[in-house]
Write a structure and sequence with these properties.
alpha+beta, four-stranded antiparallel β-sheet, elongated
Length: about 170
């Protein structure tokens, strides 16, 4: 009779411990599945800062090497942002598209849609657009806008215009 009582208490303790352990695992698991929304909100600004602060010579990409070999990159010390603007203002939109696509696709996961638009006084030019069909059903849309201009020489320049980098998920 005494052994049966001991088995009961041991079994009760094991069952209680299992319930406690399962509860802790479920609670901790629910915290891990929370999406990082704060990270998403600063993503557009961070990407824009990469474009503004990274020199062409510092960004390793086969397409940039192709542009340099063909003479399309006149100053490797300018930033990626300036290089995209230069290609756009020289009416080489296909090269601007490919450069922007290579840069943004290497920095931004596929789950995000992205568009890079230069808004001029009389028209808006979409340089690059990925997953535009998902923008209307996205959970969030964030953008970063910067002023763009391109100086040809001391007296001639294009701009100032606004460049918008828009990201959605």
């Amino acid at each position: 009779m005494k052994k049966r009582g001991a088995y009961f208490f041991v079994l009760d303790a094991l069952l209680g411990g299992a319930i406690f352990l399962i509860s802790v695992v479920m609670i901790m698991g629910s915290y891990m599945n929370v999406p990082q929304t704060k990270q998403s909100y600063v993503l557009a600004e961070d990407l824009m800062n990469v474009l503004l602060n990274t020199k062409v010579i510092e960004f390793r990409d086969p397409f940039i090497q192709y542009l340099a070999d063909n003479g399309n990159i006149t100053n490797p010390e300018q930033t990626l942002f300036q290089q995209i603007a230069e290609l756009h203002y020289k009416d080489e939109d296909n090269l601007a598209f490919n450069l922007t696509r290579n840069i943004l696709d290497s920095l931004l996961p596929e789950q995000y849609g992205v568009s890079y638009i230069i808004m001029e006084e009389d028209k808006n030019t979409t340089i690059y657009n990925r997953s535009i069909d998902r923008i209307n059903i996205s959970k969030f849309t964030i953008s970063s806008k910067k002023i763009t201009f391109f100086a040809i020489n001391q007296t001639d320049y294009f701009g100032p215009d606004i460049t918008e980098l828009k990201i959605w998920n």
